[in-house]
Amino acid sequence: MSRKLAILSLAVSLLSIPDAGLAQTVVPADYDALVGRHIGIEGNRAVAVAGVPGDPLTYYAGAAAGGLWKTTDGGIFWEPIFDDQDVGASGALAVAPTDPSIVWYGTGEPFLRSNVSIGDGIYKSTDSGKTWRNVGLTGVATRTSRIVIHPYDPDIVYVAALGHAHGPQAERGIYRTTDGGQTWEHVLFVDENTGA
Known about the structure:
7% of the residues lie in helices and 32% in strands. By secondary structure, it is mainly beta. It has a single domain, classed as Methylamine Dehydrogenase, Chain H, CATH 2.130.10. A hairpin with a 7-residue loop joins strand 5 (90-95) and strand 6. The longest helix has 13 residues, at 3-15. The N and C termini lie far apart (48 Å).
C-alpha cells in the first residue's frame, strides 16, 4: 500500500467515526491570536518548579544558583522568598497535595557540570514560603534531585540525594522522614558511586 493510499484510508476511516474529535475545526488564523510571553524567573537556570494544586496562578521556582521565587499571579510578578538564608542553590521543590501551605525545598543543583552550586540540606515552610527552617540532611543533601511528598500525609517525605559531584560518598541515595523532617532514614543505597 502506498503512503498516499494509507493516509487517504486513515482519513476516510476517521470521517466515518461519529464525533471522532473533528467537531472542532482548527483555523490556522486562530494561531495568530496566540501571543507568547516570558513568565520568569530572570537570569539563572530554573531547575525546580512546583505549582499549588487547585490554584493555577501560584507557582514556586528555584534557580540553580539564584534562589527561590514565588508568583501568585501566573508569572506576571515573581518575589524572592529565600534571600534571608545562607544558600541560594536550588535542587528540588514540592508542595504538599493535602496542604498547600507546606512547601519542601531541597538545596543544591543536581545537574553535574564543571561549576555545580552546592546546597546545605532540606528546608520546609509551613506558611506558603514566608518563613523557612532547615529540617536536616545538611552535608548529605548538598545536591537534591527530587522531593516527593506522600499524597495524604505531608509529614512523610522522600528526598533523592545525589551527593558530592566528584567522588564516592556513602550518603548517596534516598532518604525518608515520617515525622515532618525531625528525623531521617536512609532507605535506599546502591553504592558510594550511585546518586539518586
